[in-house]
What does this fold into?
Amino acid sequence: MKQTAKAEGFTLLELMLVLALIGILLTLGSLGTSATLRDWQMQRASQQVVEDFKAAQLQAERHGDTTLLNGTLQEQRSFLVFDPSHNSYALYHWQDNNSNGIPDADESNRLWNHTLPPGTSFGWVAGLDRKACSNPAGIPDRAVTFATPDSPPCNDRPCIKLDSQGSSVIGPGAIYLSNNEQSYALSITRAGLFTLCKWNGETWQ
It folds into this structure.
């Protein structure tokens, strides 16, 4: 008499266990991917600001401090102007067309406007108690700590006025970036040098 082989397979309980394990692995993978994405966005934002600052310096160096217009030397400058409330910043070229030494409303030309990558903003995480990037004690008073002249193109917004060497002529400052989980800071000195650092929960590194 011919014997029939017994069919083998998974029981309902085994299938449920396998599906549960797959669900757990997918969840962990998703969490890891989200954390990696947020970290990448922060690095991208900080590098974007650094590269844009370098571009602003090159623009200032290329134009110089003066230009000849109708036989008269005119003062000119580059301004990097920040709008923290909209997570954006713009580069302006100013030329003193009426030779009064004061930036007037119709003398500045916006060259470009950039916005921070999604998920990042000007600011810092809770618990930060050291100013960028040399770690002096105290919480920063603003997300972008450069001077805020009331004249165009700054118009009471933090801005960097650059001379022909790419240096800030209205003092040093820092730019703080955050995604609510981590913070980066770009510290810029009067000499036009800058340092990028990351907050590790206790100090800037």
Summary: The first strand starts at residue 66 and ends at 69. The beta strands are 66-69, 72-83, 88-95, 108-115, 121-122, 159-162, 173-178, 183-188, 194-198. The chain has one helix and nine strands. The radius of gyration is 26 Å.
